[in-house]
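User: I'm writing a tutorial on reading structure tokens. Could you give me a worked example: one chain, its sequence, then its tokens, then a sentence or two explaining what the tokens reveal?
Assistant: Sure. Here is the example chain.
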Amino acid sequence: MPKPKYRRVMLKLSGESLLGKREHGISPETCDSIAQEIKEVKALGVELAIVIGGGNIFRGIAGSKRGLDRTTGDYMGMLATVINALALQDSLERAGVPSRVQSAIEMRSVAEPFIRRRAMRHLEKGRVVIFGAGTGNPYFSTDTAAALRASEINADVLLKATKVDGVYTADPMKDPKARRYERLSYLDALKGRLNVMDAAAFSLCMENEIPIIVFDLFKRGNIQRAILGKPIGTLVR
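And here are its predicted structure tokens:
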């Protein structure tokens, strides 16, 4: 069995990653596919935590542009992330992968409250921990939540799963001359205003020396390749 480069991993998934071919909501087939990849990763013996966004259901900043109070919109977005976390948990459990959902906003009937030591104990026991409700505070993205939780659980790496295969000099969908970075420093990412993660997330990872790997989620096996240390996507460190 191949030896993983990273032992404790934070995986950041966007809410849109659960869409599949839908325009809105959750694709059960896509959840099941992601769960199968996670099962394969867990077989390597790694400890895996996940932060998932809510953009497939509701995005607070988009609501605020239509007149919704920003704080209210952000709390609605946090609740959307918990819905996604529960959907992914269901797929994981059906795949035979034990998991726990922890929420930054208390809702004890559906999820555990976030408690750092309990989360780390779950990881040590081989359970996947899915962190919902972002940081529990408005005005912070789920990217920042992923960087914060990665720092709190002493993760070895933050895997940022996206629709593109790394960080580019420009939007590769709009600019055919856009060039992909293989490696990038935190400072260059911040100075270049590269919109893969927000500044708060980059700063947290830089301060706590957590490398970030940005890669294409939709190429089968890429999560495992990243954990094994194979050269995919863009490494920010």
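What the tokens reveal: Strands lie at 8-13, 47-52, 99-103, 112-113, 128-132, 157-162, 183-184, 212-216, 234-236. The CA atoms of residues 144 and 200 lie 6 Å apart.
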